[in-house]
Amino acid sequence: MSVNYDLYETPDLTKSGEDQPLHARVVLKGSYTAEEFVEQVVAMQHVPHAQVVGVIEAISKELKHLLLKGFSVELGDVGYFTLSVTVDKKVMNAEDLRSPSVSLKDINFRVNRQFKKDIESELVLQRYHSPFRVKNPLDRERCLERLESFLEEHPCINRQDYAMLVGKTKLQALQDIRAFLEEGILKKYGSGRSVVYIK
Residue 80 in contact with residue 112, Cβ under 8 Å? Predict the structure, then answer.
């Protein structure tokens, strides 16, 4: 079994007008939900379903508990979890900083080197021409047509789905979505990674 990849044009973020080198990106074959992952473990590792669910819940609770206490947590041979924080305003002097101005930035994951090496040693890459990669992005009217057709069959759309639907980069898709929000074509629902867009 191989991992598919395709080559994509790199956006000219500085708007220099110069040709940008192509970059490789994995073309996903799909994704596993939490329940599907449990079923996969049950089927392939021959562990009872309830036991897998219980272990995942226990790991999740203890991981949260230890991160909240300020620890770095190593999860088996996979890697390490740590918290990172950010300052909500510009501070030049440490005495001017108050605790409420510091908040959670992210939960970081650093993969274990050996785990990465193990994946790398068994990885088989295969070039795949993604149907969503286009040299010249669609014009606004065609993007809207595809978006409207999609929303007739689905209740909502996220940024990644829209980018694949119209063959645009993440940045181009975000620009389109912002414009559609301003024009009232789309409405934003949810927050963070759960954001979706509806009519």
Answer: yes
Alpha helix stretches (DSSP H) within 69-107 = none
Rounded to the nearest 10°, the torsion over CA 116, 161, 138, 144 is -170
Three-class SS state of 26: strand
Q: How far apart are the two ends of the chain, measured CA to CA in Å?
A: 39
Rg (CA), the chain: 22
Report the distance separating Cα 91 and Cα 116, nearest Å.
Answer: 38
8-50 pLDDT, tens digit per residue, is 777 777 778 787 787 888 887 878 889 999 999 999 999 999 9
- Answering whether pTM is above 0.85, one says no
Instruction: For residue 128, give both structure tokens.
Output: 């795949």
How many angstroms separate the Cα of 126 from the Cα of each of 75, 118, 157? 30, 18, 29
Q: Cβ contacts of residue 144 below 8 Å, gap of 6+?
A: 185
H or E segment at 5? Answer: strand 3-9
